[in-house]
User: Fold this.
Amino acid sequence: EKNLLDRLLMESNLASDTRKLASLVINREKLIEEFFSLLGSFSSYDAAALILCSGNKPFLVIDEKKTLSEEDIQQIREIMLNGAGIAPRVEGKEIEALERESGESTRKATIANRQLIPLMINDEFLGSIAVFSAKKTQFTGNVKNLLRIMAAEFAMVAKLFSLYEENKML
Assistant:
């Protein structure tokens, strides 16, 4: 019972903290920073990525906790773009990439495991969240469940961000 209550409390807190990110939609850099901070609070990943398909300019953010090879970075980009269905229609559409890299110069990690979760509201695709690890058995069932909860809650934040960007453009 105690474990179940602890898990439910953690899930509830994560959902609440994710919804609070909605107050940051007017400051994209702060929103991204807080998003990855929250994601890192329950998931130990080597890299994480967020792609938001809002307006006419989707953007991709890659957060490296451990240094990755250029091949790994390229693989993450391809996974995120293909997962978002953007790669086939990139022609004429600019993808903005914001990378948050660690300061080390030696790149060594290799991606062995990944979890990719779409951000959806009804049938509308808003983007994806992904975590990557060099270890094959990195993500437990609990972490996967928390990622799904975060994605479900962050989808509303992504929609608000999209509406804000559209309004700003108009």
